[in-house]
């Protein structure tokens, strides 16, 4: 399972970095979303990978063996990180739309890219 | 148990909630509530300073869970100092926003302003790394809103860059926090420091890498080379009170380096003790030199002030990178100075911009502005303070940092860069002053539509108030440096911090 998780984190991060470096706002938003996915899985894995173990300790069950429980803290962290990333992505999409409206194009630098002549010039 | 440590965090939050309800009551009600809250924060700051001046810590257990299991707020001298500087700056910036009607240009200026204060104070008081991340997000989201407050094409463009770079910073923050948790099994700053001291050899590499990743994150906040490129355009294109308030935002990065790295990788960290410091020092020096070039190359006054802020942040990084108690004390003195004066400079730049009409703050000859002599004299005072010439506080701050650098092996390089950068900024500011105030076009050659509006005297009070910090820092240099020395002493004594946090017992009974 470890190699699958690490592969997933690696691929997500690599795709995220690639997309974040693109020149249009939409790929950048997608890239940041993928990076957020990668970091969420990473955080989750930091509590060590376990299968079928409860995160909540049952006091009435008698003597508690920690080895029979998964770490609840990373799960709480991931939950917080998901909510924050979700809110930030929503904000960024609105901002990208606003930039599209005000700058007249969806280039991250507000440049007017003439794809035929491959010339970039700043919008006046 | 006293709730002193919690109030600076909750007062702006509660005020923010009230302001949402007060929105239907009109702008005057919002202004009154918002300003009262900032006055309340100033009073609280005085209480925090007097509480911490006896060198005690207040560890506030949220939910009454003892550290390291619950989240704690930790009040010490450094936190009290940062909250105080924030409140002073907020008072000046909010006054300017109200007197110039900047807060009317969008619907929720005051709410965002209070939430920004909530995030800032929370970041300064928390004793938990993940909680610090959450407060960073709070203050960033508020700052996104404030940055875009009002409209403008350039503002949107700069805002987009600012938001994207900070989202990347947040992602890196989570990677670093996750890696540290995976190795150390804790998120409490004090507990992390205690765990690093006994960490097995094979884990040190991961911890060191995560620590440097955190440094990158704080470098984004503090605008450290090569992560500062978002900063000048974001600061130059936003509205003046917001830019003034943002003078503290870069200092959040500096504070986090002092707090997190200084505690976790402090004297007790064994092999990793202060391993980050050469990075901070070297990158600080590079930032300082490039910022000085930026000051010289700026095309407008606001851009120039943004680069001046960058130069002051770089000077602070150099001070932090020297990793000695004397240097940290000097850094904190310079931090108080540079934050308040930078705020004043942004407000002053806006006043000059309005006085020059259609010439705005571009570096070209324009008509004489109304009250040019008054504004010009104040500009000269501010420029002297900002560039670090005697007799004002910028000079003392730099002298303190340089004298603390005397023992460092890099002394020659540090002195050269700081002094050369100082010279470049002095020359540039002299050129700016003469261009704006001396080389003026004759009155009749400028059509009336291009002339500026008269001086807003009420708004000018905010500039004077913030600038007064500079002579006050000089006149009361003795008690203030005594305080910063004690603060540096406390910040360096990570053992006392760790003990204070980890030994605080839960409250057993509620006394009304």
Description:
With 124 residues, chain A is mainly alpha-helical. Chain A contains 3 helices and 2 strands. Chain A has a two-stranded antiparallel sheet. The mean pLDDT of chain A is 84. Chain B starts with 6 loop residues before the first helix and ends in a 10-residue tail after the last helix. In chain B, strands 1-2 form a two-stranded antiparallel ribbon. Chain B is mostly helical. Chain B has one domain. Chain A binds chain B through residues 20, 25, 28, 32, 35-36, 38-39, 42-43, 45-47, 73-74, 77, 80-81, 84-85, 87-88, 91-92, 95-96, 98-99, 102-103, 108-110, and chain B through 130, 134, 137, 141, 144, 148, 151, 153, 156-157, 159-161, 163-164, 167-168, 170-171, 174-175, 177-179, 181-182, 187.
Summed up, what is this model?
The complex is a heterodimer of chains A (about 120) and B (about 500). Helix content of chain A is about 60%, strand content about 5%.
| Amount of helix of chain B | over 70%
How far apart the termini of chain A lie comes to 54 Å
Q: Specify the biggest β-sheet of chain A.
A: 2 strands, antiparallel
- How would you write the strand order of the largest sheet of chain B? 1-2
Task: Name the average pLDDT of chain B.
Answer: 89
Total tally of structural domains of chain B: 1
Low-confidence stretches of chain B: none
Protein structure class of chain B: mainly alpha
Q: Mean pLDDT of chain A, rounded to whole units?
A: 84
- What radius of gyration of chain A results from the CA coordinates? 21 Å
Overview features:
heterodimer; A: 124 residues; mainly alpha; Helix Hairpins; two-stranded antiparallel ribbon; 3 helices; B: 512 residues; two-stranded antiparallel sheet; 71% helix
């Amino acid at each position: 399972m470890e190699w699958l998780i690490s592969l997933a984190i690696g691929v997500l991060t690599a795709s995220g970095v690639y997309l974040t470096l693109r020149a249009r706002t939409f790929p950048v938003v997608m890239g940041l979303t993928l990076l957020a996915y990668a970091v969420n899985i990473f955080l989750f894995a930091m509590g060590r990978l376990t299968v079928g173990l409860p995160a909540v300790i049952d006091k009435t069950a008698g003597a508690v063996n920690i080895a029979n429980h998964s770490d609840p803290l990373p799960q709480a962290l991931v939950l917080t990180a998901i909510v924050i990333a979700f809110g930030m992505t929503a904000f960024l999409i609105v901002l990208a739309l606003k930039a599209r409206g005000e700058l007249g194009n969806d280039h991250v630098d507000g440049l007017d890219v003439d794809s035929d002549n491959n010339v970039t010039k700043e919008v006046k | 148990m006293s709730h002193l440590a919690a109030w600076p965090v909750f007062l702006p939050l509660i005020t923010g909630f009230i302001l949402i309800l007060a929105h239907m009551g009109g702008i005057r009600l919002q202004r009154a509530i918002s300003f009262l809250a900032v006055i309340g924060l100033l009073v609280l700051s005085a209480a925090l300073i007097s509480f911490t001046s006896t060198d005690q810590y207040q560890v506030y257990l949220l939910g009454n869970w003892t550290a390291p299991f619950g989240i704690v707020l930790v009040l010490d001298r450094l936190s009290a100092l940062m909250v105080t500087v924030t409140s002073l700056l907020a008072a000046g910036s909010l006054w300017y926003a109200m007197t110039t009607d900047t807060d009317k240009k969008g619907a929720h200026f005051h709410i965002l302003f209070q939430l920004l204060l909530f995030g800032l104070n929370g970041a300064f008081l928390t004793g938990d790394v993940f909680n610090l991340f959450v407060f960073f997000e709070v203050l960033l989201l508020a700052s996104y809103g404030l940055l875009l407050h009002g409209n403008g094409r350039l503002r949107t463009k700069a805002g987009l860059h600012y938001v994207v770079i900070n989202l990347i910073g947040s992602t890196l923050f989570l990677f670093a926090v996750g890696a540290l948790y995976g190795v150390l099994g804790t998120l409490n700053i004090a507990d992390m420091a205690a765990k690093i001291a006994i960490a097995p050899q094979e884990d040190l590499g991961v911890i060191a890498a995560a620590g440097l990743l955190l440094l990158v994150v704080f470098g984004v906040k503090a605008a450290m080379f090569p992560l500062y490129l978002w900063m000048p355009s974001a600061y130059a294109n936003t509205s003046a009170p917001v830019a003034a308030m943002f003078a503290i935002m870069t200092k959040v990065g500096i504070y986090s380096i002092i707090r997190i790295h200084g505690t976790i990788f402090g004297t007790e960290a064994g092999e990793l003790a202060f391993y980050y410091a050469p990075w901070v020092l070297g990158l600080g020096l590079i930032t300082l030199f490039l910022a000085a070039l930026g000051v010289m190359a700026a095309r407008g006054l606001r851009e120039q002030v943004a680069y001046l802020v960058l130069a002051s942040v770089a000077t602070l990084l150099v001070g932090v990178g020297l990793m000695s108690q004397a240097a940290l004390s000097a850094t904190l003195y310079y931090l108080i100075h540079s934050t308040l004066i930078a705020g004043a400079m942004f407000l002053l730049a806006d006043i000059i911009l309005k006085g020059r009409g259609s010439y705005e703050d571009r570096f070209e000859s324009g008509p004489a502005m109304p009250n040019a002599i008054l504004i010009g004299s104040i500009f000269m005072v501010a420029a002297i303070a900002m560039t670090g010439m005697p007799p004002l506080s910028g000079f003392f701050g730099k002298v303190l940092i340089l004298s603390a650098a005397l023992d460092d092996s890099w002394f020659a390089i540090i002195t050269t860069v700081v002094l050369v950068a100082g010279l470049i900024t002095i020359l540039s500011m002299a050129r700016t002053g003469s261009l704006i105030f001396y080389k003026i076009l004759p009155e009749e050659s400028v059509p009336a539509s291009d002339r500026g509006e008269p001086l807003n005297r009420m708004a000018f009070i905010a500039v004077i108030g913030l600038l007064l910090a500079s002579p006050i820092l000089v006149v009361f240099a003795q008690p203030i440096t005594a305080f910063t020395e004690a603060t540096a002493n406390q910040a360096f004594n990570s053992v006392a911090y760790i003990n204070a946090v980890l030994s605080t017992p839960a409250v057993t009974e509620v006394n009304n």
